[in-house]
Write a structure and sequence with these properties.
The chain is of the alpha+beta class and 173 residues long. The protein has 6 helices and 6 strands. Strands 1-5-6-4-3-2 form a 6-stranded mixed β-sheet.
C-alpha cells in the first residue's frame, strides 16, 4: 500500500470517527437526557389527553381544572417555521410550573419563540429556548426529523381550554 493511500485511508477513518463516533462524555450526556426524558409515542399521549379532557367536560360534577408537567422525548418533523409565543401559552406554563413547585419567573428567560413540528398528521407549535432555537436553525433543514427532549405542560382550564405545550430543552439530529 502506498504512503498516499495510507494517508487517504487514515483521513477517511478519522472523518468517520468525528461524524459518527461519540466520546465517552458525549455518550454519557445523551444517556442522561434519555434517562430523564423517556421516549414516548407522543401522538398517543396527545390523543389520551384530548380524550380525558372530553370525558371531564361531559361530567360537570367533576372538577374541570387539572394540570400536569412531565418530561418526554420523541421524534418529530421540522417544518421550518417560527413565531413569537403568545402570552396565554406562557401563562399556562407558569400556572403548571407554580403548582408543581417550580419558579414560574424562570420561564420568561427560557421562552419567547415557537417552532412548528409535525407529529403524525398534526402540526404542533412548540416553545423553544433561545439558545436551542439558534442551534436548531443552524443544524436542521425543513423535513428533518430530530429527536426532541421536551418539558411537557398539560392544562385543562375551567373555561374548557386544553393546553398541550412543549418546551424544547434539547434536540439531536
Amino acid at each position: 500500500m502506498s504512503k498516499i493511500t495510507s494517508v487517504f485511508i487514515a483521513i477517511i477513518l478519522f472523518h468517520f470517527q468525528v461524524l459518527f463516533g461519540q466520546t465517552g462524555e458525549e455518550k454519557k450526556y445523551w444517556e442522561n437526557w434519555n434517562k430523564n426524558y423517556p421516549e414516548v409515542d407522543i401522538a398517543s399521549v396527545l390523543k389520551l389527553e384530548r380524550n380525558y379532557a372530553d370525558s371531564v367536560e361531559k361530567h360537570p360534577e367533576i372538577i374541570q381544572y387539572y394540570t400536569r408537567v412531565d418530561k418526554y422525548s420523541f421524534t418529530a418533523e421540522f417544518l421550518g417555521q417560527t413565531r413569537k409565543m403568545s402570552p396565554d401559552i406562557l401563562n399556562s406554563m407558569k400556572r403548571g410550573l407554580k403548582l408543581f413547585g417550580g419558579n414560574p419567573s424562570q420561564l420568561e428567560q427560557l421562552t419567547g419563540s415557537q417552532v412548528l413540528f409535525k407529529i403524525a398528521d398534526e402540526e404542533i407549535w412548540m416553545c423553544i429556548q433561545p439558545n436551542i432555537l439558534k442551534a436548531l436553525k443552524e443544524e436542521l433543514s425543513k423535513g428533518d426529523k430530530p429527536k426532541l427532549y421536551c418539558l411537557y405542560f398539560n392544562e385543562h382550564t375551567k373555561e374548557k381550554r386544553l393546553y398541550n405545550i412543549f418546551l424544547i430543552s434539547e434536540f439531536v439530529k
